[in-house]
Write a structure and sequence with these properties.
The structure is a single chain. This protein is mainly α. It is built from 31 helices and no strands. Helix 21 packs antiparallel against helix 22. The longest helix is centred in the last third of the chain and has 17 residues, at 535-551.
């Protein structure tokens, strides 16, 4: 913001021999020339001489105030502007300049009072409305700011500054389409010789936020014609990233960072691009560069934590989440740290993190569901069921919560209730293979092998490598007394994962139904050999083996 050097209403006081002697008049003109060319200290010296020659001339005080303003001598500037008003209360520019100076010091409320004084004397002066809009914007009163800029435009429909300021305010309100309209208008009002690069960049940013990525790229390509700029390449990289044109995005981010190695967002978004290309090491390097510039940015820390978790560095991820939570204890971050703790087997720590997330945001359905998973892992299926129910209340459209509650109900012996939940999950997501598999298993538990086979076949149609579904469909075929077909499913499961104990056990049952006890024994022996079994599972298999060995001819 700069104090104006234009002549607003009230500045038409003529310079004449009646006001100043000829030599003082010449000094004043030289003072104005120095002021207009940025020689502020020289201007102050010359204008002081003018004031000494005529201490009652308001205009000279206002102009000297402008010089002090340019030098950020706020107190001296205010003193001169007030001296000008004391001599001429209707000097509009002095009132406006007091507002500018107070705003520069951060006192926007007092600035509004000064602008009101200016507006009372010049109700048709667009610049005063723009100044008031800037003050309201600084105070966060965006609706009021928009009204002021609109008044300025009504007074001067070709005032580029007003369209830009209103566009910026619409951006702050995330009204991207309205912002784009104002920037478009500003470009249209600009002269053929004007540099509209900044306006094109603003317009591209609005289009980008609005989701019109191709149009944003077009504006940025036009802006690039004026010369290379880091912000142009960074924004175009973002648009290409959103369009999943990852190689184009990388090229633009590289160019942006070559021009300006301090662009934190460009490092972060280039890291995101590397992740999309499965270049996690390069992504980590970019996050490190971004954090070297902004080490306490919680969003960057959370993003790097997620990248570390993807690479399997869960301790490193947890450390980043710890740091982020020290700075900004957000519900989402607790939820994500809970995920990392869950993945390292710290289920109690995960419950604590999910609980803290819920305390901060009880509407975070994912945290309720995740805490249910952690309670499940701890063996507390009743608590798990409660959490899944809460997740469903928060988000009734979450198929995973219904599926997981179905698991909890099934494990507590409430099989029919579980079938209902799996069904609801499938209504929400008909391609939810896990829910199809789980409902198939539940149907098996209530001896509805036909329904089980139907669900499991649907799951395998969606995922032909779903090992567990092959095992369960084999079980359904055994129940349907079709053991030969069941063998095909068990064989397929073992081809995919030779350590699938349930496939060996199921195949042993199918072989038994076909009267091939020797083959059943081989399968049961394989089951004992390929996996670590708990004591109860081992006893069951060994007992079956004893029976088969006694039956073997």
């Amino acid at each position: 913001m700069q104090a104006p050097l234009v002549r607003l209403p009230g500045l038409e006081a003529a310079m004449s021999d009646e006001l100043l002697p000829p030599r003082a008049d010449d000094i004043y003109r030289r003072g104005l020339d120095a002021l207009e060319h940025g020689h502020d200290e020289q201007a102050i010296t010359l204008l002081t001489q003018v004031i000494q020659a005529n201490p009652d001339w308001a205009l000279a005080y206002n102009d000297r105030g402008d010089a002090y303003f340019s030098l950020k001598g706020w107190d001296a500037a205010l003193s001169d502007y007030r001296a000008a008003i004391a001599r001429d209360p209707d000097l509009v520019a002095a009132h406006l300049n007091i507002g500018y100076t107070l705003a520069a010091q951060g006192d926007h409320l007092a600035a509004l009072d000064a602008y009101a004084e200016a507006l009372e004397r010049a109700p048709d002066e667009a610049e005063v409305y723009i100044a008031r809009g800037e003050a309201y914007t600084a105070l966060g009163h965006h609706a009021n700011a928009i009204n002021e800029y609109t008044e300025a435009i009504a007074l001067e429909p070709d005032l580029v500054e007003a369209f830009v300021a209103r566009g910026d305010t619409f951006m702050a309100r995330e009204e991207w389409d309205l912002a784009a309209q104002d920037y478009d208008e500003a470009i249209g009002q600009s002269g053929v010789d004007d540099d509209v690069t900044d306006l094109l960049v603003r317009l591209a940013r609005a289009r980008l936020e609005f989701g019109d990525y191709p149009q944003a790229i077009e504006h940025l390509e036009t802006a690039e014609e004026a010369g290379e700029r880091a912000d142009i390449y960074a924004l175009r990289g973002r648009a290409s990233l959103r369009l999943e044109l990852f190689e184009d995005a990388l090229e633009d981010y590289n160019r942006a960072l070559a021009l300006d190695p301090t662009l934190v967002e460009a490092y972060a978004e280039r890291a995101e691009t590397h992740q999309a290309l499965d270049e996690d090491d390069a992504a980590l390097s970019d996050y490190a560069a971004a954090l070297s510039l902004r080490p306490d940015d919680p969003e960057l820390l959370v993003a790097r934590a997620a990248c570390r978790a993807d690479l399997g560095d869960l301790p490193g991820a947890i450390a980043d989440y710890d740091h982020a939570l020290q700075i900004a204890p957000q519900a989402d971050t607790y939820n994500q740290r809970g995920d990392a703790r869950y993945d390292v087997g710290d289920y109690g720590g995960a419950v604590a993190d999910y609980s803290r997330a819920i305390e901060l945001d009880a509407d975070l359905g994912e945290a309720w569901r995740n805490r249910g998973d952690a309670h499940w892992a701890l063996g507390d299926h009743a608590a798990a069921s409660h959490d899944y129910t809460q997740a469903i209340e928060v988000d009734p459209e979450d198929p995973v919560a219904y599926n997981n509650r179905g698991d909890a109900l099934y494990d507590r012996g409430r099989v029919y209730a579980a079938i209902v939940d799996y069904g609801r999950a499938l209504e929400l997501d008909p391609k939810f293979t896990t829910a199809l598999n789980n409902r198939g298993l539940a149907y098996l538990a209530v001896n509805d092998a036909d329904a089980a086979q139907s669900d499991l076949t649907a799951a395998l149609d969606l995922d032909p490598e779903y090992v567990e579904a092959y095992v369960h469909r084999g079980d359904a075929l055994v129940q349907l007394e079709r053991p030969q077909e069941a063998l095909t499913d068990y064989d397929r499961a073992l081809d995919l994962d030779p350590r699938t104990v349930d496939a060996y056990r199921g195949r042993a049952e199918a072989h038994t139904a076909l009267g091939d006890i020797a083959a059943a024994i081989v399968d049961l022996e394989s089951a004992l050999r390929v996996a670590d079994l708990d004591a109860e599972e081992r006893r069951e298999i060994e007992a079956t083996l004893v029976r088969h060995r006694m039956q073997r001819p």
